[in-house]
Amino acid sequence: MKALHKTLDVLDFLMERGRAGVTEISNELSLNKNNVFRILVTLEEHGLVEKEEETEKYKLSTGCVVLGYGFIHKHPLTKLSIPVLKSLRFSLGETINLAMLDDKQQFIIYIASEETIKPVKVKPRMGRRFGINSSVSSAKAIKKALRGEAGFVFDYEHDEKNGIAGGACVVRDYRGRPIAAVEVLAPMYRMPLSRIEKDIKPLLEDAALDISLKLGYWD
């Protein structure tokens, strides 16, 4: 099991850094260089990492993408949420995302998205991971729910630096636990704070309730 933990630590490190060499991984994770090399060779043989010839650094390969999308598309949360996300995108005309809380409650991972058809779009979040303490609305809403706030907790983001705005509402499972968030995101000029509170919040709450009921939630 120790070998498996080390292997997963290496994969997590590469996911965070993008690319790294044997020495860098060894130093950062306090692992023996020979062990790191053997782990990377094994992962490369299974198509999960690849080595850049010019830099001799390793990075995640498309094999990880295949595994990730296989998990995402077969997960019950994704299957049950897609119709709701599509309907919400139609109602609001903006990009709708679904972010899932990881098992350790340290990160949120964007597992589904319905993109706006408008020509000006925000940067996609599909497949991206954010810390639970980040300023994205899904992380903020889930964090409030984890701290004990009841109901379909809502929070918003208003990022002037990147020119984006939106809001998110917590999704709960059959036990009432916060496990995800449904989120709307748009360029700031199309989504002022007044619209988020008046028009967006009620629709997100309805969507979060709909998904939660599909998951067996019962208040």
CATH architectural arrangement of the largest domain? 2-Layer Sandwich
Top-tier CATH class of the largest domain: Alpha Beta
Envelope shape: elongated
Strand percent estimate: 15-25%
According to CATH, the homologous superfamily of the largest domain is GAF domain
Major β-sheet strand ordering: 6-5-4-9-8-7
**Unreliable stretches covering 5 or more consecutive residues:** none
Domain count: the total is 2
Write down the overall mean pLDDT: 88
CATH topology tier name of the largest domain: Beta-Lactamase
| Biggest sheet statistics | 6 strands, antiparallel
Kindly describe this structure.
This protein is of the alpha+beta class and 219 residues long. It folds into 2 domains: 2-66, Arc Repressor Mutant, subunit A; 75-214, GAF domain (Beta-Lactamase). The chain has helices spanning 2-17, 22-29, 33-45, 62-74, 76-92, 137-146, 193-214, and strands at residues 19-20, 49-51, 58-60, 95-101, 107-114, 129-131, 154-159, 164-172, 178-187. The strands form 2 sheets. A 6-stranded antiparallel β-sheet has the order 6-5-4-9-8-7. Strand 7 and strand 8 form a beta hairpin. The longest helix is centred in the last third of the chain and has 22 residues, at 193-214. The chain is elongated. The termini are far apart. The mean pLDDT is 88.
Briefly summarize what is shown.
45% of the residues lie in helices and 23% in strands.
